[in-house]
Specification:
The complex is a heterodimer of chains A (231) and B (317).
Chain A: H1 2-33, H2 46-54, E1 87-90, E2 95-97, E3 106-112, H3 117-132, E4 138-144, H4 156-169, E5 174-177, H5 180-185, E6 195-200, E7 205-211, H6 216-229
Parallel strand pairs in A: 3-4, 4-5
Antiparallel strand pairs in A: 1-2, 1-5, 3-6, 6-7
Helix pairs in contact in A: 3-4
Chain B: H1 2-10, H2 12-24, H3 28-32, H4 62-71, H5 79-92, H6 95-99, H7 102-111, H8 125-146, H9 157-161, H10 164-177, H11 179-184, H12 187-205, H13 209-213, H14 216-224, E1 231-234, H15 244-248, H16 269-273, E2 279-282, H17 287-295
Antiparallel strand pairs in B: 1-2
Helix pairs in contact in B: 4-5, 4-8, 5-14, 7-12, 8-14, 10-12
């Protein structure tokens, strides 16, 4: 009888101990859940914006009618930064705004970083494509995503490295440093690079976004199709 | 109450493994937000093979960090990471492998799956053991430093082509959670998943195949095993060379001969199996025994610890 009660007690204690450990572990997980999150402040998800634009059969100007379920006032309010309404600087320090897109019926925006091998690897070919389409209503613009320090100041070292890369890859089209406006417009939520998307002359996002590097022939196909779709 | 204590002690290693992994890789918001933690904790290396890019990871992988530094164009050597590896190695050696590595835990759990023909070794074990040193020198050190891109940056070859821990804990979760990554995943991702699947299947048949044959971090810590602060000692007076320790050892180490082999992950199964209690982990709490051994005299009350040659094993003089 005594042995039996000891056994039953032991089992209860084991279950209690396991339960306590579980509670502790879950407590630790929950407590750590909210710390140190590096979330893109306020920018609506670029991926979402583009998916919604593309979801309307690629018709560019119906972007305005999209119901943005991000819960933000995003695309329609003209005072919010977007690719139609921003200020930024290029890597030479010159100020630019949305008028850089007005030059061209279609602009391909390529988000890259100086630490990113695949980004650098595709840049020589992007440079070639850019030259081939010179004067043909298509341009490429690069955004050097790691050129900002944590405190939003510009990192001279990274900019120098970027210029070195541009020199060596001959991808000498316009390259921008992300400004607060651009981060808000969607660059801040880009998680993987190289990340490429297209905008029309008004800075409205059109077509698909592309994650990852591609070969020159793959890019040429994509660009041709995008130009076709916009006609 | 005592039963709980013994229940915990009996499974202490697995409980420590589970708790440490839950804490070191417990950033739940990373999984729910399809993102990784980028706070200050990431400046610190975790001791085991835990990928920096795991959504749940609070710290960095030392092997990944080492490749990043060696591959960068600004730095050629990392005092911080090498210092970390030397410090952890010197203190604990491959104790980290047995108690603190998340991928070690995964392999331990996989080995528990029943299988009709478990193997003690893979064929070619003697040579395969050296493969991890080749991977350490080749994929972690030399290739990142020598195969450079147009501006002199190298790639993390081990992370990129081999590491199954990264695939399991970072690659697969992120590809599942992020549609952009899903779109970008190609042949390389397929290769990494294949490597992972092969190792997962092998882990059911053989104990810890990755740790024994491939892990560069285990290779580094293993170099320190013979000299680390945490050591196994064989009490020569108690050891009868019965071989029970080697039989119990899932890595087939002749513990009675080589208690601090570079392969040993300090799981402690040998110590539990020894019928004479001849294997001791030091530094230990059993100070009494050491004191007696040092004096060289036979203690009146516990004669069996004397080393003057007169004392016999059963305690009579």
């Amino acid at each position: 009888m005594k042995g039996k009660s000891v056994m039953v007690n032991g089992r209860k204690w084991r279950i209690a101990a396991a339960g306590a450990v579980l509670v502790l572990v879950m407590g630790a997980l929950a407590a750590c859940g909210g710390d140190g999150v590096d979330s893109s402040s306020g920018g609506s998800s670029l991926g979402q914006q583009v998916n919604q634009a593309a979801g309307d059969d690629g018709a560019a100007d119906s972007g305005h009618d999209q119901d943005q379920s991000t819960g933000q006032d995003g695309g329609m309010n003209e005072s919010q930064p977007s690719f139609s309404n921003f200020k930024a600087a290029d890597i030479d320090g010159n100020e630019v705004d949305q008028s850089i897109f007005a030059n061209s019926g279609l602009t391909m925006v390529n988000v890259w970083g100086t630490f990113c091998g695949p980004c650098i690897k595709e840049m020589p070919e992007l440079g070639e494509i850019s030259k081939e389409y010179d004067g043909k209503d298509f341009q490429i613009v690069g955004i050097v995503v790691d050129s900002l320090n944590q405190d939003m100041s510009v990192s001279k070292d990274i900019v120098d490295t970027a210029k070195d890369i541009i020199d060596k890859t001959k991808a000498d089209y316009l390259h921008l440093i992300p400004s607060e406006d651009l981060l808000y417009a969607g660059i801040g939520s880009v998680r993987t690079i190289p990340f490429t998307f297209f905008v029309d002359k008004n800075g409205e996002i059109v077509g698909k976004t592309i994650s990852g590097a591609k070969s020159k022939s793959a890019w040429e196909k994509i660009i041709k199709k995008q130009i076709e779709d916009m006609k | 109450m005592g039963n709980v204590f013994f229940w915990v002690i009996k499974r202490l290693r697995m409980l420590v493994q589970i708790c440490f992994t839950a804490l070191s890789n417990g950033y739940v918001a990373g999984f729910t937000g399809a993102d990784i933690y980028t706070g200050p904790g990431k400046n610190f290396c975790l001791p085991g093979l835990s990928c920096y890019s795991c959504p749940g990871a609070f710290g960095a992988c030392p092997i990944g960090s080492l490749q990043a530094v060696l591959g960068s164009r600004d730095y050629r050597f990392s005092f911080y990471i090498v210092g970390f590896l030397m410090a952890v190695g010197a203190l604990w050696g491959r104790f980290v492998c047995g108690w603190l590595c998340p991928f070690g835990l995964v392999q331990d759990l996989l080995y528990k799956i029943p299988f009709v023909r478990k193997m003690r070794l893979l064929p070619g074990d003697r040579w395969l053991r050296y493969l991890k040193y080749i991977i350490l020198v080749g994929f972690v050190i030399v290739l990142p430093m020598t195969v450079l891109d147009i501006i002199g940056q190298g790639s993390p070859w081990f992370c990129k082509y081999i590491c199954p821990s990264g695939t399991l804990m970072a690659g697969i979760p992120l590809v599942m959670l992020d549609e952009n990554l899903r779109a970008a995943a190609g042949w390389l991702f397929l290769w990494k998943v294949a490597v992972l699947i092969v190792l997962v299947l092998l882990s059911v048949v053989v104990y810890r195949p990755f740790c024994r044959y491939l892990c560069p971090l285990g290779a580094v810590y293993g170099l320190f095993n013979p000299i680390s602060l945490y050591q196994f000692r064989i009490d020569e007076q108690k050891c009868t060379k019965c071989g029970a320790c080697q039989k119990a050892c899932k890595l087939d180490i002749a513990v009675w001969e080589k208690p601090n082999s570079m392969e040993c992950i300090r799981c402690g199964d040998c110590r539990k199996a020894c019928p004479h209690g001849a294997i001791q982990a030091v530094p230990s709490l059993r100070k009494m025994k050491k004191k007696h051994q040092r004096t060289g005299l036979s203690c009146q009350s516990c004669k069996k610890y004397g080393t003057d040659g007169k004392g016999e094993k059963d305690g009579t003089i």
